[in-house]
């Protein structure tokens, strides 16, 4: 290993910084019991080293210098190898004050325990075979999950479902390579291998599976990073009111005066299990005169280009105008769009024929930001778009590292298949297959470098 030593004992605060009801200090390593015992006095004066795994013990955490207790604590015991890290682990649950946690951790560090680096507990779990690399990355996804959908993906990946799918694909690639090498080594033997059909089928199967994984990456990004939904329209159609109504709080300034919003606002919310980044924008006008209005237009147009879903808002209590048509023409045709006819609490003056002539068959919702009528239908329409985009079955890759490794594997497979079809000697086909196999091994962590682990686990918080 590099700077990390599995033979030393580490400790860190595992709960978020700040004040809370409970905090947890985690200790892992071969000397975990010896490190904690000098400070712990149990209610029954029992030694921690003599207690069974998966038990909890109450007592006092003492400061030897003052001979006064720091706090009343609970000690949870997890023994190697059946622990998170695969080592002896002790978790100290104390009251969640800054002074308390700092004092307990300081006493442990003063006993020779090393402060853990970011992600070092999970890194030890990987190095001790408790998790593979994709499962270790799922721990971070689980912590950062912002919606039910992203949580579901992280939980499945942590359970090993992605690992199993990648392992099956890796074994299929290994069988293909083994068949070719066997044919090379024993060309005169009857090995039961149909070079023309079986190997070609294996090439096709592997590439199809890799392409399916690569396609899942974009879908997963929508789930994990959030779908950008932008509200656009001419001034004073109620964009900011719709924005506030969806958020269920007054985030954007609302006024009857035109150009109240000059810069876009963005807030996060969850709709039907999807993480949404909702954006309110400045009203679009064809010829902005004030420099600030012009800057607002430029930002709105940039937001349109970035958006995954566009909410095109108009005032249903007013006739359809050229200003509405101008906004509609600026929306990129490929964008998913929902037409919002706002102010349904007022008499309608927007003609349906004119609306259909403008928007065609684009889905529309009549709503009132004031009374909240139609908001539930709008949320269902937004969720429906996202269901279509993310409903593909099967496991999904979640990291750019996964994507790049699979792209490397696919490129090498394609080169190998091309050589195979051209009937070039198998000696020139197998190196590309080995390169594809190496890429798959790096993906699952069968092959890794310390630099790679440094990059992955540096994203973790200290204590995890």
Structural features, described:
44% of the residues lie in helices and 18% in strands. The chain starts with 9 loop residues before the first strand and ends in a 7-residue tail after the last helix. Strand 9 and strand 10 (274-280) form a beta hairpin. The protein is of the alpha/beta class. The model has no long low-confidence stretch (mean pLDDT 85). The protein has a 7-stranded mixed sheet with strand order 3-4-5-6-2-1-7.
| Helix count, DSSP H or I runs of 4 or more residues | 15
N to C succession of SSEs: EEHEEEEHEHHHHHEHEEHEHEHEHHHH
| CATH architectural category of the largest domain | 3-Layer(aba) Sandwich
Helix content: 40-55%
What is the secondary structure topology, with strand pairs?
Layout: E1 10-13, E2 20-28, H1 32-36, E3 40-42, E4 55-63, E5 68-78, E6 89-96, H2 98-110, E7 114-115, H3 120-127, H4 133-144, H5 148-159, H6 161-185, H7 198-225, E8 227-232, H8 239-247, E9 265-271, E10 274-280, H9 291-306, E11 309-315, H10 322-330, E12 336-342, H11 352-359, E13 364-366, H12 375-390, H13 400-421, H14 430-444, H15 450-457
Parallel strand pairs: 1-7, 8-10, 8-11, 11-12, 12-13
Antiparallel strand pairs: 1-2, 2-6, 3-4, 4-5, 5-6, 9-10
Helix pairs in contact: 4-5, 6-7, 6-14, 7-13, 13-14
Describe what is shown at a glance.
With 464 residues, the protein is an alpha/beta fold. Helix content is 44%, strand content 18%. The chain contains 15 helices and 13 strands.
Tags for this model:
464 residues, alpha/beta, Gyrase A, domain 2, Four Helix Bundle (Hemerythrin (Met), subunit A), 3 domains, seven-stranded mixed β-sheet
């Amino acid at each position: 290993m590099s700077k990390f030593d599995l033979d030393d004992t580490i400790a860190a605060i595992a709960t978020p910084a700040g004040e809370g009801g409970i905090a947890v200090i985690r200790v892992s390593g071969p000397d975990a019991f010896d490190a904690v015992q000098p400070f712990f006095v149990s209610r029954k004066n029992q030694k921690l080293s003599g207690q069974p795994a998966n038990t909890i013990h109450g007592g006092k955490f003492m400061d030897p210098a003052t001979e006064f207790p720091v706090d009343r604590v609970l000690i949870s015991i997890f023994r190697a190898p059946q622990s998170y890290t695969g080592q002896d682990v002790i978790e100290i649950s104390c009251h969640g004050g800054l002074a308390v946690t700092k004092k307990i951790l300081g006493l442990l560090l003063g006993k020779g325990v090393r402060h853990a680096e970011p992600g070092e507990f999970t890194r030890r779990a990987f190095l001790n075979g408790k998790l593979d690399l994709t499962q270790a990355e799922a721990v971070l996804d689980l912590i950062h999950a912002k919606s039910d959908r992203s949580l579901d993906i992280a939980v499945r990946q942590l359970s090993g479902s992605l690992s199993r799918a990648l392992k099956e694909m890796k074994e299929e690639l290994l069988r293909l390579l083994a068949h070719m090498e066997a044919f090379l080594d024993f060309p005169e033997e009857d090995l039961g291998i149909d070079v023309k059909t079986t190997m070609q089928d294996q090439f096709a199967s592997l590439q199809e599976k890799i392409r399916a994984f690569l396609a899942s990456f974009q879908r997963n990004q929508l789930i994990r990073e959030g779908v950008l939904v932008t509200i656009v329209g001419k001034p004073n159609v109620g964009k900011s009111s719709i924005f506030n109504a969806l958020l269920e709080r007054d985030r954007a300034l609302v006024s009857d005066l035109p150009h109240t919003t000059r810069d876009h606002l963005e807030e996060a919310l969850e709709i039907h299990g999807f993480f949404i980044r909702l954006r309110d924008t400045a009203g679009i006008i064809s010829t902005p005169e004030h420099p600030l209005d012009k800057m607002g237009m430029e930002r709105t147009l940039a937001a349109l280009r970035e958006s995954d879903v566009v909410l095109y808002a108009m005032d249903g209590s007013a006739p359809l105008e050229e200003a509405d048509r101008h906004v509609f023409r600026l929306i990129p045709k490929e964008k998913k769009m929902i037409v919002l006819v706002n102010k349904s609490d007022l008499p309608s003056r927007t003609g349906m024929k004119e609306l259909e002539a403008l928007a065609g068959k684009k889905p529309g919702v009549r709503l009132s930001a004031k009374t909240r009528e139609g908001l539930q239908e709008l949320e269902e329409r937004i969720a429906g778009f996202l269901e279509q985009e993310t409903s593909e079955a099967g496991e999904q890759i979640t990291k750019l590292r996964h994507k790049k490794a699979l792209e490397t594997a696919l490129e090498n497979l394609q080169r190998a298949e091309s050589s195979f079809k051209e009937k070039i000697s198998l000696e020139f086909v197998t190196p590309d297959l080995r390169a594809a196999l190496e890429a798959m091994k790096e993906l699952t962590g069968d092959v890794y470098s310390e630099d790679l682990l440094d990059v992955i686990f540096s994203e973790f918080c200290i204590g995890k």
